[in-house]
Structures are given as structure tokens and as C-alpha cells.
């Protein structure tokens, strides 16, 4: 919304020395976005006067038509003699009044005017166009003034060339500010000055003599006012003051009748439409369009109407797209047409905002009217806007207002809000007090009653005020956002990270310390990646939680595993030349059970109850926290020290052990078959919870079909483990290791077992048999061959023994070792190799 300061002063008596910058500061403090303050006429210096063309000599022999004019400028040149001026424009004739800039003047942009010789003649000044004076972008010709202005009159004042224009970005909730009335109201409040409301007019009561109107859709159009003016002078043109106000506001003058409707729209905020009465047949109607109906709008485009479009009609069919644009068949005649418009019907109506917004978007037709209607227009202003239009037509076009007044109203009541007087205090954290709250609400037009509990009737021009928080916002902004105190929130003492959060952080640090790089990915997946991972049809990871409004149609669901995102990140990095990769991620996955109840809608005006929060939590899917790693390339690079070591399934298993150690859990590793891992290189990661082994994750090398489908490097390995289960298995905070000052005793044992015996079972038996003196146990070799027999394998373990209070004797170490071997032999059938 462009607001000329000179126009604004008509409604608010601003201090004489107040500049546009001063008004900008006040309005910004009140919450309006004043983007710029344009200085019109900056650098303009006279003499710039009204002149009359006395004679025109056509100059020949040039590439374009040139005219040598004699112009009377009165005493403006100090001599009273005529000025000789060379001009190329051809839209004026002898006797016309024009705008003349004389030598010594300066036009906007630093263009100094002096007498100079051109086209073989001396030009003593210049006859000006609108673009040269900064009035508009019209380059079609020079300005021709009405004949009533005297020669020598100061054109700077006449054309209102010096002014300041505030360009305000009006947010959708402040639709009333799309008018001078609304901006003047905000300015008056900011300066504590009274408002001269342009909508306070004496309006005649509706009667039965008005132009007939039939509203078939009272929901889409709840108010329709029609007035008729006859006897208009078809040759009457808009006066300069009207044209200049429109130009400063960014509207192009068209014709007197159209200019007046635009002027009133800018002044009061009510869009209007004028119909040439001679082109309207029968009563004016408002209804929904019939499918397939067509209408040619004022822009010359024929539009096929939708059944949801609200249209204005007469007996011939649609004559306008309600609230958006009128039809060409009832257009006001141009002043240059032979048969000008002498009778008009003025429409001032109120339409449903949603209906107008949808119609404007459906037809890709945004207009100044639709921009206002879709944001909300004051329904009580229709009669005043129609009356203001009639008054201006009578005054400027010599018309006569018919006594008939048509006004169709749908029953309705003003919106009322109940508000505690101290509610704005609680919202802002500032003690405003009841008097301040009541005064500010009354300033914006509300009627306020009550003491502690206020009953507030919202003004018709503020459809955005719907609940107590809206009213609190009005009080706060008018009291000044800058006056709100800056206070830091006081967190309650004694709260820290939960054990779950601590484990999450420890795992991240441990994996980073082991050489992994964290890669955070979007938590969205699609069916295609699950197919590429080779998951079975009944795999629970296929039970997806789907989003109502996904960011991508290819990934419409929440992830059930961390691997797709990590593998995609590994593929991108490998495609860009990074071949040795170790990535990790920790985060939530989402597992739907199908038993979740529908989500409840929480209130927004108060804190939800504990029961409502519990119901909302129950509607959420299970969200276990997981950690995952992926590896490709070399785990140890080749160099002068020797050959490199490629990643293997064992590295993925070790990543799982690293995570488990942060939870204080010693993993049990068994062979497993699980998609998407290689069936012969997949390990199940188990932990003991309440004496029972539970699966907490898997690790190993990915299946070749998976690496091919996903475009991954060969022998890519991965691990995924559930942190919540590890936390339960850990049984509390991790204790720091005890450092003993006594030496360690190491014993190696090689046990021969059947191929079917899991190394984890042998290890478990050795631990239990060795007792408390066993500090650690490590499998360092697996051997198969003819020496130990077919169907057998040799498992070599290094056992470390240490006592916390003494140096162990050889006998104590031997007893502990033998006890460990005995238990292993009993439970797994193991025998000492070579025995």
C-alpha cells in the first residue's frame, strides 16, 4: 500500500514539521512494515509553470517530426515575452495549456535546463511530459492541462510534484491497512491524534426505488448496495488532484468514473464497480456460475467459469467475476468513444473471502479488489463507499443521484470476545493494568465493557481479531514491542541429561574416536529402497508410518531402519572419489504396530491436560533409538609400512562391541542370517537382560545383490544396533575400570570343538569356569584342517588373569585355567588341542 503523506494529512492533523521518516518510525513501532519512504520531486527546482501554446512551426528535413513552438508563460520569465521552445511531441495544438520548464530550472535526476541551440533553432526551455517530471512512466506525449488554469501558475504546486510516499507491506491479517482510512487510524493512534473517518457519511436509508438486485447466494455475498447516478458529462475528465493521488498510490488514471471508484477503494478500503446502465439488461444478480459458462473480463480474456465461481449477472448472463474483475460487456465507455457513459450503477458489496481467493487463484487473476476481499473487507463500509462514490460523481461529472437506494443484508451479529483484564499482562510479562488495556482496545475501535472480565465487541473492519490472544497482541504492539523486558528463562535446578541421552552422546564420541564420521540423514524412506535391501514381504521393517504431506513422493514414509540413509550417504561420497569410508548415525526409527489409537486434537488456548498428552503419546508409533555404521574400502591404508587392510565383517562387529561397551554390556556374537546381510557373513549381536539373551542388533557384510542394487562398493559392511535395549542390558551407569598395580598372567588355550559349536558358547563357558580372577578373554585364532579332523575346528583363546590385591602364583593361574577348560569341555564337548 502506497500512502502519500499529503493525502494522509487530510485525515490526521500531523505536526507541521513531521516528515515521512518520522511517520515511518511511528508506524514501524506500531507493527506495520514500512519498507521505503519515497521522496517525490527530490532535486526538482523551478521555474516550472503553466504555459499556453501560441504558435507552432513544423521544421522539415529531420529524421523525426520537430516542432518550433511559441509559448506564453506570463511573467514567469521576468519579461512577459513568449518563450521559443523546440519540441518533438505531437499530442498538443495551438491554444493548449502545457507545463513549461524555463532556463535555470532543474528536473529530477540532476537534469539542468538552459537555453540551447538544437535543430537550427534556440530552445528556451522545455515542454514537459509526465515521465520527465517523475509523475508516471508515460512517455506517449507531453502533459496537456485543462483550459481553466492561468498562464504562469506554478506547476510544482499545481501538479503536487513534491511529496513523500510511504510504501507499506501489509501483512494478510491487517487487511484494513489496505486503505487510507486504515493507515490514518494507525497513524492517529501512534500520535495520539483524532481521526477524521472518511466513512462517516450521511447515507440515505434503503428504499424500494433502487436498482433491482437479486442475491441467490447469501453466504457468498452477505451485503450488496446499489446506487444509480444519471446525467453524467461523458467528456468530464478526472481533475489533477484526483489523478495525482491515484498516481502516487500506484494506480493509473483511466476515466473519471473508474478513477473515482479506485479513489474510494484506496480511501475507504471498499472495492467498487461501476456498470454502464445502458449496457445492463434487467436486474443485477449474484449467484454461482453454471459449469461451462463464459465471461470476457475487462482485460479482454474470455474465461470459462467454474461452478464454485461467484458471478454478477443480468438477464443476458454473467457480467462480472464477483470481487475480482468486471465484464467487458458492461464496461464504462472511454471518453474518446462516440457514445459516452451518462448513467452508471454503482456496486458496493461484501463477498466471502475464501470464495474470492479461490476464484482469483483458479483464473490466475489477481486484482486490487480481490487482494482486499480475500484478506477481509469491512462489511459495514459498503453504504458509505457507495455514497462517497455518488457524491464525487455528482461533484466532478455533473451527475444527479437517483433517490433509489438498494441494500441487501444477511442477518449477522458483531463478534464478541471475553477477556480477562490481566490477560495481556500475563502474555507479555508486563503489568499494563486494566485502564491501559481498555484504552488501547477502544483506540482500535472495540467496544469494551466489564471490570475484571471484559466483554469486547470487535469492530467490523478487524476480522483478524478472533480470540483473547489477538486482543493481547493489539495491546502489546500499541504499547511498544521495544518496551517489553528482555529476560532469560530460569531453568529448574537439578535437571540434567537422562541416562538415555548420556548413552547417546557416549556412543557418538566412541564411534568418532574409532574413526567413524557422523552423517545425519533425513528420516524418510520409500518402498523402493526396502526392495533394494531385499527385505522379505513379512519383514516388520516394511510396516511403514506414512506421512500425510511428504516432502517427496519417492520417500513418503518414516524410516524403520537407519541403513538406507547411511548407505545413500556412502554411495554419494564413493561417487565423488572418496573410497575409504566409515560413517555412523544415531537416531530414531519408527515402528508402527497398527494398534495406535487416532490422535487427539490438542487445545491451543490453554495447556493440555496430562490425560490429553498421554492420549497423544499413545497415538505415536514406537520410536526406538538406534546406532548404525557403514564401511567400505580399506580400514587401514597401504603405505611404506605394508599392505592395506580392507574392511570386513569383523570391523562391523567390532563397531557393535564399541557401542555396547559404552553401555557397559559385553556382547554375545553368534552367526545369523538376516537381510540385507550376506548369509555367511552376518552376525547376531546379543545381550543378556534379566538372565535371557535378546537380540540387540546385527553386523556383517552386505549381500552382493544389495550392494549391486544400491550402487555400493563391493564388500560394503554395516552394523545396526538398538541403544534402548543396550541401556536395559547395561543396568545403569557405566563404572570406570579398576587399574591394578599387580602384574597380569596370560594363558593361551586351544580348544577343538565341532563346527556346529558357536565360539560365543565356548567363550561363555570359559568365562564362567575361570571365575573372578579372569580379567579378559580374547579369541585370537580359528583353525580348520586335516590335523584336527573333519568337521572340527580349533579355537585359540588368550586368557588374562589378575588379582586386585596380590601377585598370582603359577598354581593359582593353572587352577583357574583348568577350571575354565573343564567347564568348556562339559558344556560344549571341547578338548584341548594336542591332548
TrEMBL record:
It comes from the Bacteria. CDD domains: PheRS_beta_core, tRNA_bind_bactPheRS. Its EC number is 6.1.1.20. Belongs to the phenylalanyl-tRNA synthetase beta subunit family. Type 1 subfamily. It catalyses: tRNA(Phe) + L-phenylalanine + ATP = L-phenylalanyl-tRNA(Phe) + AMP + diphosphate + H(+). Keywords: Aminoacyl-tRNA synthetase, ATP-binding, Cytoplasm, Ligase, Magnesium, Metal-binding, Nucleotide-binding, Protein biosynthesis, RNA-binding, tRNA-binding. Gene3D superfamilies: 3.30.56.10, Bira Bifunctional Protein, Domain 2 (3.30.930.10), Ferrodoxin-fold anticodon-binding domain (3.30.70.380), Nucleic acid-binding proteins (2.40.50.140), Phenylalanyl-trna Synthetase, Chain B, domain 3 (3.50.40.10). One of its GO terms (molecular function) is phenylalanine-tRNA ligase activity. This is Phenylalanine--tRNA ligase beta subunit. It comes from Streptomyces botrytidirepellens.
Amino acid at each position: 500500500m502506497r500512502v502519500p503523506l499529503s493525502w494522509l494529512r487530510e485525515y490526521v492533523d500531523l505536526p507541521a514539521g513531521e516528515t515521512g521518516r518520522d511517520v515511518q518510525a511511528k508506524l514501524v513501532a506500531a507493527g506495520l512494515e514500512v519498507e521505503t519512504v519515497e521522496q517525490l520531486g527530490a532535486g526538482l527546482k523551478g521555474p516550472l509553470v503553466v504555459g499556453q501554446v501560441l504558435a507552432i512551426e513544423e521544421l522539415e528535413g529531420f529524421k523525426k517530426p520537430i516542432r518550433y513552438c511559441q509559448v506564453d508563460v506570463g511573467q514567469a520569465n521576468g519579461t512577459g515575452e513568449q518563450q521559443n521552445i523546440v519540441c518533438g511531441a505531437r499530442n498538443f495544438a495551438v491554444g493548449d495549456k502545457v507545463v513549461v520548464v524555463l532556463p535555470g530550472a532543474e528536473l529530477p535526476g540532476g537534469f539542468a535546463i538552459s537555453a540551447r541551440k538544437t535543430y537550427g533553432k534556440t530552445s528556451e526551455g522545455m515542454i514537459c511530459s509526465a515521465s520527465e517530471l517523475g509523475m508516471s512512466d508515460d512517455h506517449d506525449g507531453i502533459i496537456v492541462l485543462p483550459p481553466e488554469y492561468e498562464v504562469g501558475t506554478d506547476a510544482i504546486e499545481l501538479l503536487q510534484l513534491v511529496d513523500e510516499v510511504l510504501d507499506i507491506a501489509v501483512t494478510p491479517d491487517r487487511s484494513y491497512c489496505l486503505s487510507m482510512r486504515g493507515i490514518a487510524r494507525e497513524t492517529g493512534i501512534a500520535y495520539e491524534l483524532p481521526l477524521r473517518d472518511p466513512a462517516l457519511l450521511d447515507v440515505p436509508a434503503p428504499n424500494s426505488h433502487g436498482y433491482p438486485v437479486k442475491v441467490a447466494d447469501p453466504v457468498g455475498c452477505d451485503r450488496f448496495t446499489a446506487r444509480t447516478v444519471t446525467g453524467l458529462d461523458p467528456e468530464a475528465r478526472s481533475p489533477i488532484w484526483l489523478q495525482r493521488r491515484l498516481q502516487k498510490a500506484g494506480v493509473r488514471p483511466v476515466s473519471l468514473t473508474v478513477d473515482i471508484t479506485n479513489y474510494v477503494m484506496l480511501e475507504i478500503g471498499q472495492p467498487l464497480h461501476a456498470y454502464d446502465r445502458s449496457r445492463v439488461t434487467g436486474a443485477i444478480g449474484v449467484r454461482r456460475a453454471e459449469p461451462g459458462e463464459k465471461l470476457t473480463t475487462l482485460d479482454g480474456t474470455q474465461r470459462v467459469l467454474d461452478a464454485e465461481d461467484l458471478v454478477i449477472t443480468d438477464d443476458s448472463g454473467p457480467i462480472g467475476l464477483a470481487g475480482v474483475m468486471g465484464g467487458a460487456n458492461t464496461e464504462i465507455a472511454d471518453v474518446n468513444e462516440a457514445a459516452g457513459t451518462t448513467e452508471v450503477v454503482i456496486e458496493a458489496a461484501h463477498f466471502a473471502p475464501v470464495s474470492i481467493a479461490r476464484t482469483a487463484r483458479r483464473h490466475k487473476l489477481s486484482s486490487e479488489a480481490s487482494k482486499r476481499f480475500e484478506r477481509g473487507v469491512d462489511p459495514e463500509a459498503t453504504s458509505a463507499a457507495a455514497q462517497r462514490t455518488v457524491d464525487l460523481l455528482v461533484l466532478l461529472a455533473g451527475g444527479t443521484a437517483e433517490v433509489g437506494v438498494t441494500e441487501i443484508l444477511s442477518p449477522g451479529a458483531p463478534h464478541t470476545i471475553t477477556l480477562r483484564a490481566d490477560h495481556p499482562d500475563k502474555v507479555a510479562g508486563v503489568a499494563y493494568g486494566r485502564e491501559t488495556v481498555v484504552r488501547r482496545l477502544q483506540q482500535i475501535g472495540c467496544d469494551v465493557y466489564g471490570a475484571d472480565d471484559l466483554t469486547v465487541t470487535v469492530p467490523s473492519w478487524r476480522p483478524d481479531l478472533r480470540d483473547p490472544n489477538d486482543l493481547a497482541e493489539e495491546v502489546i504492539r500499541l504499547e511498544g514491542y521495544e518496551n517489553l523486558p528482555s529476560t532469560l528463562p530460569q531453568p529448574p535446578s537439578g535437571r540434567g541429561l537422562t541416562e538415555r541421552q548420556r548413552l547417546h552422546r557416549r556412543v557418538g564420541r566412541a564411534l568418532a574416536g574409532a574413526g567413524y564420521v557422523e552423517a545425519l540423514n533425513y528420516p524418510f524412506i520409500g518402498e523402493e529402497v526396502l526392495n533394494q535391501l531385499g527385505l522379505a514381504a513379512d519383514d516388520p521393517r516394511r510396516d511403514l508410518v506414512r506421512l500425510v504431506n511428504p516432502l517427496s513422493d519417492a520417500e513418503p514414509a518414516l524410516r524403520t531402519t537407519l541403513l538406507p540413509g547411511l548407505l545413500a550417504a556412502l554411495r554419494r561420497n564413493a561417487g565423488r572419489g572418496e573410497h575409504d569410508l566409515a560413517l555412523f548415525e544415531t537416531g530414531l526409527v519408527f515402528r508402527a504396530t497398527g494398534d495406535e489409537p487416532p490422535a487427539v486434537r490438542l487445545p491451543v488456548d490453554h495447556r493440555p491436560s496430562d490425560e490429553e498428552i498421554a492420549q497423544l503419546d499413545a497415538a505415536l508409533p514406537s520410536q526406538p533409538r538406534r546406532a548404525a555404521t557403514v564401511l567400505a574400502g580399506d580400514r587401514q591404508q597401504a603405505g611404506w609400512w605394508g599392505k592395506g587392510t580392507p574392511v570386513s565383517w569383523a570391523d562391523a562387529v567390532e563397531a557393535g562391541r564399541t557401542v555396547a561397551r559404552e553401555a557397559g554390556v559385553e556382547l554375545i556374537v553368534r552367526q545369523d542370517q538376516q537381510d540385507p546381510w550376506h548369509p555367511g557373513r552376518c552376525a547376531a549381536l546379543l545381550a543378556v537382560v534379566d538372565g535371557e539373551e535378546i537380540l540387540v542388533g546385527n553386523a556383517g557384510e552386505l549381500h552382493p545383490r544389495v550392494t549391486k542394487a544400491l550402487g555400493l562398493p563391493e564388500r560394503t559392511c554395516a552394523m545396526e544396533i538398538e541403544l534402548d535395549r543396550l541401556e536395559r542390558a547395561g543396568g545403569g551407569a557405566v563404572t570406570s575400570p579398576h587399574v591394578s598395580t599387580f602384574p597380569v598372567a596370560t594363558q593361551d588355550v586351544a580348544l577343538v570343538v565341532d563346527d556346529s559349536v558357536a565360539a560365543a558358547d565356548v567363550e561363555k563357558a570359559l568365562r564362567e569356569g575361570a571365575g573372578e580372577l579372569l580379567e579378559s578373554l580374547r579369541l585370537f585364532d580359528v583353525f580348520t584342517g586335516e590335523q584336527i579332523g573333519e568337521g572340527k575346528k580349533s579355537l585359540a583363546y588368550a586368557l588374562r588373569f589378575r588379582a586386585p590385591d596380590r601377585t598370582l602364583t603359577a598354581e593359582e593361574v593353572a587352577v583357574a585355567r583348568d577350571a575354565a577348560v573343564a567347564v568348556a569341555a562339559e558344556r560344549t564337548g571341547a578338548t584341548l588341542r594336542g591332548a
